[in-house]
Structures are given as structure tokens and as C-alpha cells.
Design goal:
Strand order of the largest sheet: 2-9-6-7-4
Shape: globular
Mean pLDDT: 90
Oligomer: single chain
Low-confidence stretches: none
Distance between the termini: 25 Å
Number of helices: 7
């Protein structure tokens, strides 16, 4: 619905309110006289077909991603859980990467926010492998105000306060709030090993965060000291080579999902308003 048409509907509703209390309402029968401009039935069918094809493609890509990640998780368990070796070195998590605890820039400075740089918080992490977009974002000024909190693409972000144990990777240079600890791998072959290891440790992370306080909180110090049984370099390299194509596919699919979703959401109001017409064959 176009903004002008929406304003007409709103004005119609306001002009037909009944009652004087704070619970005014528009009587149902008033809508019998509301006139709407609709495309022909054949054009409505064509519009629905276009939008359904976009939704179907988005759903297919989501299902592909779930399959790819499940396969990566299965391979991880086979290689590093079922076939774990006692000879593997046990190291602290901080040995595998730099640990960054996020922070929120000063909200007193409006110039720090609403830019193009993702500022990742827990709601942005649900049901994702890579986070491309976030509800809140930073400007270059906001980023530079706490440059040491910046994480490069494909760092591993783990929620450690309140909702503990969500794990994602950022798709592009980002920052996070203080509820998230991020790992910047010291070697590329550690990346997906760490990511999948963190996914398998959700119960352990929750147990570590439950310290008797009202809110679960796994502080950065304890997080950095988590023990990791580390396979040898050759095994890590082979594993990385095996799963890297799976994660590249997920990344590509998520890119397509974003594009298709934006296309659908842009196209819908234009099709419904008649700004864009569908040719009926």
C-alpha cells in the first residue's frame, strides 16, 4: 500500500471512531463502504506467483544452509569427538585466538550510531551462521571511538551474558556489545574448528555462566581460560580444507537470501500499488 493510500485509510478510520473513552473504535460495518483499488484477479494471481517463487527460493536456501551446517557438525564430531586422541595437547582458548569482549559506545554521542558498520547484539545472533546485518549499527566515528573492540570478518562471536551459548560469525568488520565475547583466530585453520567447538559446548558454557546470580554471566577471563583439546596441525589443516567449502556455500546462500528478501520487500508494495505492473500472458 502506498503512503498516500495508507493515509487515506487512516483518515477514514479516524473519522469514523465511536465512543469518547480511551478505547475508541471503528465500527465493523464502516469498512463495508471502504473502497480499495485492486488489480484484476488474473494480475493478483500473477503477483502471488512472483512473490511465492521468491519465498520458495529463500526457503530452499535456508534449508540448504541447515544441511551444510549439520554436515559440518557431523564431521567435527567424527574427527574430534568420536576419534579424539589422548595425545592431543590441551590448551586454553586464548591460545587459539585473541579474545575481545564487546562494548557499547557512548550513547550520548548520536554521531556514533546509524551508520553502515554492524553492531551485533544477542537478538541479531539467532538462527544465523553469518551475521550480515544488525538492528543497531555504528558510523566510522562510533567504530573509531573504541577501535580496540573491532572484530574482522569471520571472527567467532559467542553470547556469554543472559542468553548464553549462541555462536555466529560476523560477515564483515563489526563490533559487539558487552554480552558477547569474540574470538579472532590466530590461524585460519582454527576458524571453523573453534566455531564448531563452541557450538558443541553450549551446555558447558551455560554451566560456567551459572554462578548463583540472577543473570547468567560467563566473564571474559573465564571464557579465555576454557580448556580445548587441540588436534595436531596436520589434522586441523585437513579438516579446514574439508569444511571450508561448506561454510563458503552457507555464506553465498546467505548473501542470496539477503538480496532476494530485499527484492521481495521492495517489489511487494510496488506491485500492490500498481507502480509496477505484471504482464499477463
Amino acid at each position: 500500500m502506498t503512503s498516500s493510500r495508507w493515509n487515506e485509510v487512516r483518515d477514514f478510520a479516524e473519522n469514523n471512531f465511536e465512543g469518547t473513552s480511551g478505547r475508541q473504535r471503528v465500527p465493523k460495518n464502516c469498512f463495508d463502504n471502504l473502497k480499495l483499488n485492486l488489480p484484476s484477479l488474473s494480475e493478483q494471481t500473477a503477483i502471488a506467483s512472483i512473490l511465492s517463487s521468491l519465498d520458495d527460493k529463500i526457503d530452499l536456501l535456508h534449508r540448504q544452509n541447515k544441511t551444510q551446517e549439520k554436515l559440518a557438525e557431523t564431521l567435527f564430531r567424527q574427527w574430534f569427538v568420536e576419534e579424539a586422541e589422548e595425545s592431543w595437547e590441551v590448551v586454553k582458548l586464548e591460545k587459539l585466538g585473541k579474545i575481545i569482549c564487546g562494548k557499547t559506545p557512548s550513547k550520548k554521542n548520536a554521531d556514533y550510531f546509524n551508520g553502515d558498520i554492524p553492531f551485533i547484539k544477542i537478538p541479531d545472533m539467532h538462527d544465523k551462521t553469518f551475521v550480515f546485518d544488525s538492528v543497531d549499527s555504528l558510523t566510522e566515528k562510533g567504530l573509531n571511538s573504541q577501535l580496540n573492540k573491532t572484530i574482522p570478518p569471520k571472527s567467532i562471536c559467542v553470547s556469554c551474558i543472559a542468553t548464553v551459548g549462541l555462536v555466529v560469525m560476523n560477515a564483515k568488520t563489526s563490533q559487539t556489545n558487552q554480552q558477547i565475547n569474540s574470538i579472532i583466530p590466530t590461524k585460519d585453520i582454527y576458524r571453523y574448528f573453534i566455531y564448531l567447538k563452541m557450538l558443541t559446548m553450549k551446555d558447558d558454557l551455560l554451566a560456567m555462566a551459572s554462578g548463583g546470580t540472577a543473570t547468567d554471566n560467563l566473564n571474559t577471563g573465564d571464557f579465555s581460560k576454557i580448556n580445548i583439546s587441540l588436534p595436531n596441525e596436520n589434522q586441523l589443516k585437513k579438516f579446514h580444507e574439508t569444511v571450508n567449502p561448506l561454510f563458503e556455500k552457507i555464506y553465498t546462500n546467505q548473501t542470496q537470501i539477503r538480496t532476494l528478501t530485499q527484492t521481495r520487500d521492495t517489489l511487494l508494495p510496488k506491485l500492490m500499488s500498481g507502480e509496477v505492473r505484471v504482464e499477463i500472458v
